[in-house]
Design goal:
Pfam families: Mut7-C. It contains seven helices and seven strands. The protein is of the alpha/beta class and 155 residues long. The structure holds zinc ion.
């Protein structure tokens, strides 16, 4: 899966968990907790993004994907079917590391020395592939962190 092949998305306010899950798959997902409903939809339109929502009143508007389920896993499945993507199986861990799940920023590769102050020492010792979010400065690496994020997003 290449994120370039998929539309950019905008998640409505109640879909923050889904937004994080989609970002872990490398998708470009905008999410603004302070903006909801029609206002959020207008922002999505202005930014040329597909708007994901559970608001029934927005049904039928152009570029709106109305999700039926309240369950994040099932929402992910709905999005997968519509967009034709395989969200449960990113091709590799490094692919799941392309975007910050919190900020949606594209992660930047950093070297081990740069990562060292931000990660546990045993992680520093065994990993070479570190990335940092330019927005929140969180540091990510393949493996434990991604797994943990995926688990946290599972409910
Ligand atoms: Zn971030």
């Amino acid at each position: 899966m290449k994120s370039d092949n998929h539309p950019r998305l905008f998640c409505d306010v109640m879909l923050g968990r889904l937004a994080r899950r989609l970002r872990l798959l490398g998708l470009d997902v905008r999410y603004e907790p302070g903006v909801r409903g029609l206002q959020a939809y207008r922002r999505a339109k202005a930014d040329r993004r597909l708007f994901l929502t559970r608001h029934q009143k927005l049904k039928g508007l152009p570029d709106v994907l109305l999700l039926e389920s309240e369950n994040t896993d099932r929402q992910l499945e709905e999005v997968r079917q519509v967009l034709g993507i395989q969200p449960e199986k990113p091709r590799s861990e490094s692919q799941a590391l392309s975007r910050c799940p919190v900020c949606n920023e594209v992660l930047k590769k950093i070297n081990r020395d740069q990562a060292r102050p931000a990660v546990p020492f045993y992680i520093y010792q065994i990993h070479n592939d570190f990335r940092r979010c330019p927005q929140c400065q969180r540091v990510f690496w393949p493996g434990s962190h991604v797994q943990k994020m995926l688990k946290q997003g599972g409910k």
